[in-house]
Write a structure and sequence with these properties.
single chain, about 80 residues, mainly alpha
C-alpha cells in the first residue's frame, strides 16, 4: 500500500475534523428542545458544517490519486469543471 501524499493527508484530516464537528452539532441539535429559539441557528450550523465536510471529502477524493493502485482517478464532469 502506498503512503498518502502530504497534501492529501492534510486534506483528509481537515475532512475528518469537519465531519466530527458536524456530528457534534447534530448531537447538540437533537438534544435541544423543540421550542428552544437556538434550534434554528443550530440547524443552520449543522447544514453549513455538513456541506463543508462534504466539500472537503469531494476535494480529497478528486485529488487525482487512487491510493490502492497508485493510478490517476478518471476525470468526471464534476472534476473537469471544478464543481465542488
Amino acid at each position: 500500500m502506498r503512503a498518502m501524499r502530504f497534501d492529501d493527508t492534510i486534506l483528509y484530516e481537515q475532512f475528518v475534523n469537519a465531519r466530527l464537528k458536524a456530528v457534534e452539532l447534530t448531537d447538540a441539535f437533537r438534544e435541544t428542545q423543540a421550542d428552544d429559539p437556538r434550534r434554528a441557528v443550530l440547524w443552520d450550523e449543522v447544514v453549513r458544517q455538513t456541506e463543508q465536510a462534504r466539500g472537503l471529502l469531494e476535494s480529497y477524493l478528486a485529488s487525482g490519486k487512487d491510493l490502492a493502485s497508485g493510478k490517476d482517478q478518471p476525470t468526471t464532469a464534476n472534476t473537469l469543471h471544478g464543481v465542488r
